[in-house]
């Protein structure tokens, strides 16, 4: 299909029907009325404002409602937070979300609601909390996007979700909804965003909409039009940027609904997994930790940190990590790793100082005098000695080193469980092992064929 046909078909699937919009509007109006009555009963003089994709008309299906309580600047921050959180508990009976700025999350008539206290500011010049910009974002986008443009945002959001690049959360490391909206404001349409990314973007790309603030270093910089001190794209990781650029090129070359709604990937069988590692000549290991009782966004960041820590340790002790992936469920945090080897020799070469550095040479020779595997020798101008390795087994190394490897702060090293190569292949999660051993973009799951864009 051509791009116009694909995009019309996708819009038919993602634009909420009139009945859906009417239902959400009705529930939002009832929620607002309940909050207004609560504020009046408790003598709380604040303004209210819906923010987020619902208020901007860019939501897909089942949107969350973000209702902001805008306090006068004269109210002390602690008092503002106390009143706002109490209102959230009384109205939503939800849970407090202790991020940089605390708020309440709960449900109202089946819709997830965030009730967020903030300050009612005249400008973003003197922000008092991390969320004070949000009402300005809502006002800006509603001014800048007409109804057709809002559908273009929907296409971009659905595309980002389909390729795995959506969301500024720590696990996604991608494009927020607000960033998608700004890109459509900047370029005018979904396809023009993709055309710009495919032909112009690279790491370090800087995009201005209303003006730029001070220079910012980041893989992608998009100056916030309501506060040019801020980079709206600060969450976008270099790999996510690269993924979006490549996906844009592939879609423009061969448009398909699979970019928006990728088919589920079938995990490889044990025989296929075993054949893959034998073909690679590599070894597999799976590391698991108990899941801590911590917010999911926080855990996502710590799981990335743990994955990187495991890879560094494998490299440090010469097992040499090739690729790693991770997953999380209600009970466990899992990192699966492919490495060049899972066992190494008993001894290895330990390099010392150059022979011509006299004092260092004498100290080195004195330290290793009578070494078990022979005296120091010269290799490429350096003193060298054969010594025992600290570890010869990758699994044992990871168990012993996990407590000082730099894993996530809330990950408990005492809960580590390591599955060695054969156990990992036989009993490990085949979905995560499939991702590890045969990397594939989501839109390729149906055809198992890699698009080769021209140019």
Account of the 3D structure:
The chain has 455 residues and is α+β, with helices and mostly antiparallel strands. The chain contains 15 helices and 15 strands. The strands form four sheets. Strands 1-2-5-4-3 form a five-stranded mixed beta sheet, sandwiched between helices. The chain has a four-stranded antiparallel beta sheet with strand order 10-11-9-15, sandwiched between helices. Helix 7 crosses helix 8, helix 8 (190-199) packs across helix 9 and helix 10 (270-280) runs parallel beside helix 15 (430-437). The longest helix is centred in the N-terminal third of the chain and has 24 residues, at 18-41. It is globular and about 85 Å long.
Summarize the structure.
The protein has helices at residues 3-14, 18-41, 52-56, 77-92, 134-144, 147-163, 177-187, 190-199, 238-253, 270-280, 296-316, 358-367, 394-401, 421-427, 430-437; strands at residues 47-51, 65-71, 95-97, 103-108, 111-119, 205-207, 220-224, 227-231, 283-290, 321-328, 332-339, 347-354, 377-379, 382-388, 417-419. It is α+β, with helices and mostly antiparallel strands.
């Amino acid at each position: 299909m051509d791009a116009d046909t694909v995009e019309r078909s996708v819009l038919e699937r993602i634009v909420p029907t009139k009945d859906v919009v009417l239902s959400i509007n009705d529930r939002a109006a009832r929620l607002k009325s309940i909050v207004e009555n609560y504020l009046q009963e408790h003598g709380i003089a604040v303004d209210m404002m819906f923010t987020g994709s619902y208020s901007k008309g860019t939501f897909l299906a089942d949107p969350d409602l973000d209702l902001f309580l805008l306090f006068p600047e004269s109210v002390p921050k602690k008092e503002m937070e106390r009143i706002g959180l109490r209102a959230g508990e009384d109205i939503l009976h939800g849970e407090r979300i202790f991020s940089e700025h605390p708020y309440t999350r709960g449900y109202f008539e089946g819709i997830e609601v965030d009730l967020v206290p903030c300050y009612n500011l005249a400008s973003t010049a003197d922000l008092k909390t991390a969320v004070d910009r949000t009402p300005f974002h809502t006002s800006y986008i509603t001014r800048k996007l007409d109804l057709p443009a809002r559908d273009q945002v929907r296409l971009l959001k659905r595309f980002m979700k389909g390729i795995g690049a959506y969301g500024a959360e720590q696990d996604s490391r991608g494009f927020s909804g607000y960033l998608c909206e700004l890109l459509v404001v900047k370029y005018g349409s979904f396809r023009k965003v993709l055309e710009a990314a495919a032909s112009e973007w690279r790491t370090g790309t800087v995009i201005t909409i209303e003006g730029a603030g001070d220079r910012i270093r980041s893989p992608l910089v998009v100056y916030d039009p309501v506060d040019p001190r801020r980079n709206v794209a600060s969450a976008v990781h270099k790999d996510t940027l690269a993924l979006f650029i490549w996906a844009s090129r592939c879609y423009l070359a061969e448009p398909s609904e699979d970019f928006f709604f990728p088919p589920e990937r079938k995990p490889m069988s044990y025989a296929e997994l075993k054949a893959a590692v034998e073909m690679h000549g590599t070894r597999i290991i799976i590391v698991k930790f108990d899941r801590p009782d911590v917010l999911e966004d926080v855990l996502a960041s710590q799981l990335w940190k743990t994955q990187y820590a495991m890879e560094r340790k494998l490299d440090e002790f010469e097992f040499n990590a090739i690729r790693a992936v991770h997953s999380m469920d209600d009970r466990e945090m899992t990192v699966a790793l492919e490495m060049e080897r899972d066992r190494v020799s008993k001894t290895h070469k330990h390099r010392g100082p150059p022979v011509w550095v006299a004092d260092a040479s004498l100290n080195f020779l004195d330290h290793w005098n009578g070494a078990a595997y022979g005296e120091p020798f010269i290799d490429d101008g350096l003193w060298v000695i054969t010594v025992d390795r600290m570890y010869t087994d990758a699994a044992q190394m990871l168990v012993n080193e996990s407590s000082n490897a730099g894993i996530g702060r809330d990950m408990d090293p005492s809960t580590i469980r390591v599955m060695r190569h054969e156990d990992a292949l036989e009993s490990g999660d085949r979905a995560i092992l499939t991702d590890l051993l045969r990397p594939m973009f989501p839109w390729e799951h149906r055809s198992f064929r890699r698009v080769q864009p021209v140019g």
